[in-house]
Amino acid sequence: MVVRPFQFSNFARRIATLAGRPLTFALAALAVLVWSATGPLFHYSDTWQLVINTSTTIITFLMVFVIQNTQNRDTAAVQIKLDELIRATQGAHNAMLDLEQLEEEQLEQYLKRYEELAARAREKLRSGELDVDVPEIKSSR
């Protein structure tokens, strides 16, 4: 059986939404309480312990993929929205679009440049000047 990416994304979103609800937490807590209450009945056997260990391991393992999928989608959506705001803002630098695709050292260069701009802006504010402008950015390539 082949699962198409769109189907998995919808499935993952539904599961993540359900997993985050208070009722789901209450059901999980109830399951742990029932399991712990049955300890004396099963004499706290290895099998009794294995049930909770195996169950939680399987659920955790599967939820990692579900949560990662929803996080990837959310991050992509936020990046697209930010890119659109940059693109649509007059005076904004379109070079800032899609920064998450740059190499680490390129990101560091941009970060240093913006830290310098922030320091200069704070100096201007301290001296009573305005801190608004659109300074040129240096190419990091």
Compact description:
By secondary structure, the protein is an all-alpha fold. It contains 4 helices and no strands. The two termini are 46 Å apart.
Explain this structure to me?
- The protein contains four helices and no strands.
- By secondary structure, the chain is mainly α.
- The radius of gyration is 25 Å and the shape is elongated.
- The protein has helices at residues 5-19, 22-37, 46-88, 104-126.
- Helix 1 (5-19) packs across helix 3 (46-88).
- The mean pLDDT is 89.
Q: What is the succession of H and E elements?
A: HHHH
Query: Rough shape?
Result: elongated
Radius of gyration: 25 Å
The proportion of residues forming helix, as a percent range, comes to: 55-70%
Question: Unreliable segments (pLDDT under 50, ≥5 consecutive)?
Answer: none
Largest sheet data? none
- How confident is the prediction overall: mean pLDDT? 89
Please identify the structural class as seen in this structure: mainly alpha
Distance between the first and last residues' Cα: 46 Å
Total DSSP E strands? 0
